[in-house]
Amino acid sequence: MHIPQGARRAGAPRVTLLTEGTYPHSHGGVSVWCDQLVTGMPDIRFDVIAVTGTGREPLAWEPPRNVGDVLSVPMWGEPPAGHAPRGRSRKRLAATYETFLEALLDPAAEHRFGPALHGLARAAADGLLGPFLRGDTAISVLTSVWRRPGLAVREARPTVHDALTATGLLEHALRPLAAPPPTEGVAHAVSGGVAVLPGLAALERHGVPLLLTEHGVYLRERYLGYRTAPYRWPVKAVILGFFRLLAEESYRRAALITPGNRYNRLWEEEGGADPAAIRTVYNGVDPAAFPPAGPEPDTLTLSWAGRVDPIKDLETLIRAFALVRDRLPTARLRLFGGTPRGGEAYRERCEALAASLGHAEAVSFEGRVDDIRDAYAAGNVVMLSSISEGFPFTLIEAMSCGRATVSTDVGGVREAVGDTGLVVPPRDPEAMAAAALELLADAGRRKAMGEAARLRVIEQFTLRQTIDTFRAIYHELADGRSSAEARPARVVVPAPAVTGTGSLAG
Q1: Do residues 349 and 236 share a domain?
Q2: What pLDDT shows up at residue 398?
Q3: CA distances to 37, 132, 256, 359, 370 from 41, in Å
Q4: Which of 162, 138, 139, 158 is nearest to 148 (CA)?
Q5: How confident is the model at residue 331 (pLDDT cuts 50, 70, 90)?
Q6: Is 16:48 a contact under the CB 8 Å cutoff?
């Protein structure tokens, strides 16, 4: 799909946004952030390579005139066009794929990941990779690697079914390599993971500098997601090995990494990123667009805004609310936000939980709201219960609206809130309920916290600061004043432990 190009001013850099599951096909915090960038810099030409689900997703955002090409790269729709390699071409690709798998499964071979990935990227550009991965040779290569003595995964006795599953997952994950990469300007990946793949190809093939912005920690979220995924350990070893080494390669090759908070920076440094190549840039909002919310509701109410998704951990919020209601029987919980396609079962589970706890009539799922400010105004206290976040927009928007907040201590939440709200451990309904009750019992404290929160946003987290910073970065990278060419050799560092996720093999 292509959108007519907008005007571009002479001398302005050309920027290609690399997204996954967000702008311009989905709502959410990262999409808001992308929209802020493109609308805030009308003099800069933006293109978008958007990794999507099926490729049939409608646009959720109307891109402004300075957004030119929008290319949808479906991971789960029809496979990219191509043909199976034959003869020497197949042997070369099989050898490259074997090296790639060795890097994923053998710690002694991890240094081969980057060259092997770029070999696969060349095959994808020629239309060979997808058909190869859907063929028998790829299955045979994986089963052969799995059987090698000394590999820990061998002890789990991988099956042919495991090989089919792992190869299928890799085929889908590598599809973005078939997208035409940017040939000029700056490639700006707005998350880690598969969205970065066209940017790595652009750097390798055309020397286009890669800018990486992680809002949440992509690798950590994959660990969390695969904890309960219905796959045996051999499959998880392949897929999580891929995501870990892709994160390290992205950190090593990026010209600049701009995490949205210090927490992300720690993960990136542990993943091998050069500290000199990391620059923290906080998300920002326009305080004029999020003015004080006005009078609180008469009925004591907790409000929440976001997408209905397991990573937002609404189950903990609902359990906490049940404890609040034991003390305040008339209290309400209002949940604002859409349910992504495929997430209906999670919403139904949350509704069933509220009913089983005896509070169905007091918990309302209100769907998307036309004006998000109404969601913040609806509560005496605004809640955030996520198990993973970057620097959440809903939090700083609520702060700008002058509402007191209770948030889980994940990502950049503590950096955002400071002492203007209460922060509690994730997955702890008792602590969340205690904090909510503390604020619901003290209107004066809520008012003082809300006023301090708005002042904190005005002083530290304005949209203008964010836009000006990224404009300068785009010019800096386009002018060649920062380069990945002199990056030191990749240092393989084990990923940080993920607290509370349990065993991925379970």
Answers
A1: no
A2: 98
A3: 6, 42, 20, 47, 25
A4: 158
A5: very high
A6: yes
Q: What is the pLDDT of residues 101-146, one digit of tens each?
A: 999 999 999 999 999 999 999 999 999 999 999 999 999 999 999 9
Name the helix (H) or strand (E) containing 333. strand 332-336
Q: Which of 136, 154, 172 is the last residue of a domain?
A: 172
Q: Which residues contact 220 (CB under 8 A, 6 or more apart)?
A: 267, 388, 496, 498
**Same structural domain, 93 and 57:** no
With b for 16 or more beta-carbon neighbours within 10 A and e for fewer, the 68-88 pattern comes to bbbbbbbbebebbebeebeee
d(CA 397, CA 376): 8
Joined tokens for residue 324: 């609040």
**CA 400/CA 291 separation, integer angstroms:** 6
| Cα gap 251→224, rounded to integer Å | 20
Three-state DSSP state, 19: strand
Total residue length of the chain: 506
Tell whether the model's pLDDT for residue 491 goes beyond 70. Answer: no
Q: Is residue 368 within 8 Å of 384, Cβ to Cβ?
A: no
Q: What is the pLDDT of residue 10?
A: 53
State pLDDT tens for residues 335-360.
Answer: 999 998 788 999 999 999 999 999 99
* Range of the structural domain that residue 210 is part of: 14-78+179-277
d(CA 45, CA 38): 8
